[in-house]
């Protein structure tokens, strides 16, 4: 009889596996008991000599098996060594793993050279994640994190923790699926349309700048040689926290310096450059706090997501982004992880554990106690789980609502600021216009006043000149009058002197002359 009021609780896949292993263990214990009983019966009927002979035979057989296995292992090892690890991926397809999505092969049609205008990859509107089906990534621990956080397919990345670019071409790599590669075997089997190089932070404190640059150029040339139809993208070295754990190992000043070098090399070799620093760096020149993985050098899950989105949104021109990019997650095995340690990488035993945690490489803590979990789920547990899910959903909805409200407030604030700026600009323009008009009016008034002043001065000069001319005329007339008077006076004197010489003593003539003079006709008038 069912003691539950509702339907029987569902058994999870994990619980089914626990049941299966419990059954297997029970059967093995039963077989062990039966075998022990049979051996006891046999031992009772076998003598000492027969027992010794059987034991020796078992030892000889076991030793022979060990020798055969050692020989086979040695042959395989020598074969891999002689072929530089290339035979390991033979007959497995371009992806190296039948369970992995196959990277699309490059061709002459998909190959393009950058120009000065296209060297730096720019944002493409509506870019799709299907673009990554045509890409592979060569990198260090930062690329390892991209794989372990589930942003890149395991087999689409050739990367190792602590690796530097000078050692990259000669190193042997192992991915999470256990596949071993060299750069040569990887690129020859993964002729991807786009190859991203995400290296340079390890070894950035190289004492020789020439060594750093020359080894990077050699690596680029080797990649181009092994994948002649692939488009190569140099990814900028991402920023760090100058006060983080690796502050004595790498600083942003060095990163900026070598990023300039990478950009120049990309232009020189007509390949591409992706500036991920644009999204990772804060206004203070340091890595943004939300992208800091904790040690100042490596990135958090959010940081990896920001890099992933930036790559998708800034694709190489001409490469298709059709299809869906599906990440086949492969959990890393801590016992198989390869790491380059030492001064060049900045990794040591003291920070190794923390680094593994940042890289997403942790042991499965639930595996050891899985068998102790209950194989049934009660209604109370289901209800509790459901309540937790509803609570989580409610919290997510509240968070989303709060986020939306904050965005709306920010948009309103921004709009108000824009309106205020527009109003202020209009007022400034109006004030400038008014000022210009006032200056124009003042200028016109000044010009009118100046014209009036000049006119007055000209009129005054003309008047003064007329007065001077009038005075000169009068003076000339006066002088002429005086001259005439003097001439008349001189003539009158001569007449008087003539009359006296005639000796006229007749008293009647004098009145006659006097009468003529009284008539007002003077010599001057006669002259007139």
From TrEMBL:
<feature type="compositionally biased region" description="Polar residues">
    <location>
        <begin position="78"/>
        <end position="90"/>
    </location>
</feature>
<feature type="compositionally biased region" description="Polar residues">
    <location>
        <begin position="510"/>
        <end position="528"/>
    </location>
</feature>
<keyword id="KW-0812">Transmembrane</keyword>
<protein>
    <submittedName>
        <fullName>GDSL-like lipase/acylhydrolase</fullName>
    </submittedName>
</protein>
<feature type="domain" description="SGNH hydrolase-type esterase">
    <location>
        <begin position="187"/>
        <end position="305"/>
    </location>
</feature>
<feature type="transmembrane region" description="Helical">
    <location>
        <begin position="51"/>
        <end position="72"/>
    </location>
</feature>
<feature type="compositionally biased region" description="Low complexity">
    <location>
        <begin position="365"/>
        <end position="375"/>
    </location>
</feature>
<dbReference type="InterPro" id="IPR036514">
    <property type="entry name" value="SGNH_hydro_sf"/>
</dbReference>
<feature type="compositionally biased region" description="Low complexity">
    <location>
        <begin position="487"/>
        <end position="499"/>
    </location>
</feature>
<feature type="compositionally biased region" description="Basic and acidic residues">
    <location>
        <begin position="382"/>
        <end position="486"/>
    </location>
</feature>
<feature type="region of interest" description="Disordered">
    <location>
        <begin position="365"/>
        <end position="528"/>
    </location>
</feature>
<keyword id="KW-1133">Transmembrane helix</keyword>
<feature type="region of interest" description="Disordered">
    <location>
        <begin position="78"/>
        <end position="100"/>
    </location>
</feature>
<keyword id="KW-0472">Membrane</keyword>
<dbReference type="Pfam" id="PF13472">
    <property type="entry name" value="Lipase_GDSL_2"/>
</dbReference>
<dbReference type="InterPro" id="IPR013830">
    <property type="entry name" value="SGNH_hydro"/>
</dbReference>
